[in-house]
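in:
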């Protein structure tokens, strides 16, 4: 079940910046290496735990739940998921 509480909507560019800065802070990867389409595991050497840490921080920040089956391998994947959740807003809220 997807849950999203009221959080301010951010434009896609701001979401991209936020995700990139979160990854830089967590893993110490220089921003210039964090291309939106780079595969975080294959190209940057992230492991499953790294991705889980990113997911948990995004869930906490945006107050939502990201289902395990959502494929999140790139920054664009994270941004697209977050954008969809923000645009769904009230339809993603659950009791």
């Amino acid at each position: 079940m997807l849950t999203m509480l009221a959080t301010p909507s951010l434009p896609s560019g701001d979401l991209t910046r936020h995700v990139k800065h979160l990854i830089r802070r967590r893993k110490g990867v220089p921003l210039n290496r964090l291309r939106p389409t780079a595969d975080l595991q294959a190209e940057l050497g992230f492991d499953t735990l790294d991705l889980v840490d990113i997911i948990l921080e995004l869930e906490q920040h945006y107050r939502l739940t990201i289902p395990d089956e959502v494929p999140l391998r790139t920054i664009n994947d994270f941004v697209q998921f977050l954008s969809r959740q923000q645009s769904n807003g009230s339809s993603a809220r659950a009791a």
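note: The chain has three helices and no strands.
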